[in-house]
Amino acid sequence: MTTELERLAGRLRAFARVRDWEQFHTPKNLAMALAGEVGELVAEFQWLTPEESAAPGPEASARIRAELADVTLYLVRLADVLGVDLVEAAEDKLDENDRRYDPGRYRGSARKAPPA
Amino acid sequence: MTTELERLAGRLRAFARVRDWEQFHTPKNLAMALAGEVGELVAEFQWLTPEESAAPGPEASARIRAELADVTLYLVRLADVLGVDLVEAAEDKLDENDRRYDPGRYRGSARKAPPA
Amino acid sequence: MTTELERLAGRLRAFARVRDWEQFHTPKNLAMALAGEVGELVAEFQWLTPEESAAPGPEASARIRAELADVTLYLVRLADVLGVDLVEAAEDKLDENDRRYDPGRYRGSARKAPPA
Amino acid sequence: MTTELERLAGRLRAFARVRDWEQFHTPKNLAMALAGEVGELVAEFQWLTPEESAAPGPEASARIRAELADVTLYLVRLADVLGVDLVEAAEDKLDENDRRYDPGRYRGSARKAPPA
């Protein structure tokens, strides 16, 4: 069964091929493009309070959704070019974080809080 | 049917809840955490030529996979907190890019090359 | 008269030359290195409230100062390699922002707030 | 004697004060704004080869100069709000790097190449 990310990676592969853009899609270049898009995403939240950031208005929400999309597209494309299964890698890392951050010890403390 | 990203988002939700970390997971904070991880990913490629970046050695490959995992975890968590379906948003954006970048006109030109 | 940034740029030039690292210091690579360091700087603030970020403890302050140093070093080196006078460029941009953001109209509003 | 960066920091202070923007200029927010601008700078180089990045055309050069200016403005503003002397911090870090990276041992090797 093809997963949703494999399907997306396949579309991105075709997208690059028909435009002869594979030459530009080295991991180095794609990592830069990803950083550029994440910069745009961060900029959406820079002047908001943490509380405001949780309830953006309709226009900001549309822009944020589009930035999340761009980040996803470059991340999926970068992983595909490198042959990395993103979900498998993420699940492995989360297993590791689950062992590393004992719920009792780290409860309510953001010190070195890992992804999640 | 639950997709692989929904499953991952569910695990991240539980991970945060049992540690009482939901208070730290505002979109503003998660966007910053995402930017920090993307910075680490970019650093892996900074001194490599584009060609070298396509064939990292085994140690670099393991580090890159772990950084891609961290980026994925924060991206999925951020989208979940905001209620955005990442794959749907990405597919929509790719549809738009498909219309916007005519294959004939943009063939082999990186000028304004979009994600993919 | 040599300014403090010209002196710093000169030291960085010598630093790279004696290690034969000029070959790695292309603008592309230096921009990536800058992004990596900014990622580390952002990570220092990611779980802090805006208020907490204004009064970091002694250990966090030392780390933040070191990250600001790394960002400055790469920024000065990148500008030097490109032949850009950072202070002149910044003054020009600030002149432009001064004209663009009328104090009366933008008073107290972060909407599109520019640098400073 | 007032240095060029102190003068710039002073202008930025006044710029924020007359617009009542000091409330937005917490270190957390300014670090995010810095990350956003560095993202735009990185995007200028993402599809260029390292060689091309060393010789951008006139239009790209103007954009790059403007992005370097934005990065400088936020960096100087952030350091000012935190009470950090950027040049002193950078000189200290460069002293440390000078000791840490023995020219003989690291000659021509980008492995762990530090800023410079």
UniProtKB/TrEMBL annotation, chains A, B, C, D:
PANTHER family the UniProt entry points to: DCTP PYROPHOSPHATASE 1
Residue ranges occupied by any NTP pyrophosphohydrolase MazG-like domain in the UniProt entry: 26-100
Domain of life: Bacteria
Residue ranges, compositional bias (Basic and acidic residues): 93-105
Biological process, per Gene Ontology: dCTP catabolic process; DNA protection
Species annotation: Nonomuraea pusilla
Molecular function terms, GO-annotated: dCTP diphosphatase activity
GO-annotated cellular components: cytosol
Positions of region (Disordered): 93-116
Protein's recorded name: NTP pyrophosphatase, house-cleaning of non-canonical NTPs
